[in-house]
Specification:
Layout: E1 4-8, E2 12-20, E3 30-38, H1 51-54
Antiparallel strand pairs: 1-2, 2-3
Length: 140
């Protein structure tokens, strides 16, 4: 089998797994899959999470599905770039170096007192609560 790792932090559990790229044509033959979940209620986190993944945890119990790519063809051309599911655009999340923590919406040094949940009022895709997703009140 391929490698995996689990991390248990004070507020989060993470699992990283190495998997083969299905239908490999060229480039990397393996990918990393990340699964994460809070171990406390979202409102009890030390800071509101942000970034591409962190925006999934904004305290409103309503997942947002942004624009999605068309996977009905054998070759997929990525165009969605999280449009409608994140604040701003993908370019707002770029960093200047591999260990940089600053970007437009960075919360690296934030606390709950200095941060806020994402503001999705201007999202281009409608938010709707989806059946089967755990809500923050069901965690921990």
């Amino acid at each position: 089998g391929l490698a995996s790792a689990e991390f248990k932090l004070p507020e989060w559990e993470l699992r990283i797994e190495s998997r083969r790229v299905f239908g490999h044509i060229k480039g990397p033959e393996h990918r990393l899959d990340l699964a994460m979940k809070p171990t406390v209620r979202e409102t009890d986190l030390s800071a509101w999470p942000h970034g591409i993944i962190g925006q999934s945890y904004d305290g409103d119990d309503s997942p947002i599905s942004g624009k999605q790519d068309d996977y009905s063809t054998p070759i997929v051309h990525t165009e969605a770039m999280a449009e409608g599911a994140i604040e701003g655009t993908w370019a707002d999340y770029q960093v200047n170096s591999p260990f940089e923590t600053r970007f437009k919406y960075s919360r690296f040094d934030a606390t709950m007192a200095t941060s806020r949940p994402r503001a999705m009022a201007k999202a281009t895709v409608v938010s709707e609560k989806m059946a089967g997703y755990a809500t923050s009140s069901e965690v921990a």
